[in-house]
Amino acid sequence: MKETVVVKVGTHILGRSNGRLNYNRISDLVEQIIKLRKTHRIVLVSSGAIMAGKEFCEFSHEKDPLKKRQMLAAVGQGRLFQVYSDFFREYGVITAQALITFDDFRQKESYDNIKNALEGILDNNIMPIINENDVVSFSESTFGDNDQLASLTASMLSADLMILLSDIVGFYTADPKKDPNAKLIKTVEQISSDLLSLCEDSLSDGGTGGMLSKLRAADLASQHGIPTIVCSGKEKDSIIKAVGGQTSGTYFKPSRKKSQLSIRGKWMMTAANIKGTITIDSGAESALDNKKSLLAVGVISVKGNFAKRDVVLIKNSENSSIGAGLANFPAEEIRKYIKAKEKPKGVIVIHKNHLYTL
Ligand code: GLU
Known about the structure:
By secondary structure, the protein is of the alpha/beta class. The protein has two domains: 250 residues, Carbamate kinase (3-Layer(aba) Sandwich), CATH 3.40.1160; 84 residues, Roll (Archaeosine Trna-guanine Transglycosylase, Chain: A, domain 4), CATH 2.30.130.10. Helix content is 38%, strand content 22%. It contains 13 helices and 17 strands. Strand 14 and strand 15 form a beta hairpin. Helix 2 crosses helix 4 and helix 7 runs parallel beside helix 9. The protein is globular, with a radius of gyration of 22 Å. Bound molecules: glutamic acid. The site of glutamic acid has 13 residues, from helix 3 and strand 4. Glutamic acid binds next to helix 3 and strand 4.
């Protein structure tokens, strides 16, 4: 079976400084994908609809930024897809468009539908091109720059690699635009919570949000055993080099072997409406490894105000997400169990039938 690679291309890669689509770049990206398709299953997640829309109209009179974004995307998505399709057709490759919202991932039925459709498209050797459905997305639940869309897709398809093509060379020790001593990190061994908060802090200092969103996407992929490469989409043969292990960008190592999680478990951990987090001790972690239920005695802390049957994330004492499940009690009740002087015996917080671990 060919390995699956999810390639995300950001708007900055597809545009020229005058804000118009860069047809040479798109043609070059398509050429690389064509070469790689001989040995890999490639899924393209591409932004650029809003930019493509601006080739036709600006809607400068429109005051509502969300409405403007929706209108530009509605105008531009067709054009963007047409440009890709025309380039792929030169090589005899048929393209398929999938426009997805965050809420589509949240609903288990639509999650399954997206997975089925994409797998069918790949099995039939058609080239899938995905973007957010910007017309439907509400501002608060938007993917924004598609990094998260790429990582959810990668985990859904159990991809072998995720490549985030950006206008920066990779992940630096500091913002290279501000700090001349900033160094490129070639390999990130582990996406620690320290690294994530460092990035969050740089954002609150006015730094770029782009790296944080890439780090979060790489973190999600890593939890599911998928490595991520962040590299410059402007560099020659960037995708080919990334797949061939010769990237000049940053390689994020996965934190575990590729996950064997069921599709329901994957959905719960990545896309479902997670209402809280339960952190457990090492004893409970080994019980979970042995497919047992999660008992109240093993719970260290509870975050969030979930109700019975809500989806909760399970973390170990090192703060790594290790699974998800349906809570058997509301958060308040579990907190009472934790505080109780006499630890309750045999109280099941998440039943093994509704529990999924990596
Ligand atoms: N879905 C948006 C588009 O296609 C993404 C915009 C962005 O990259 O921020 O234009």
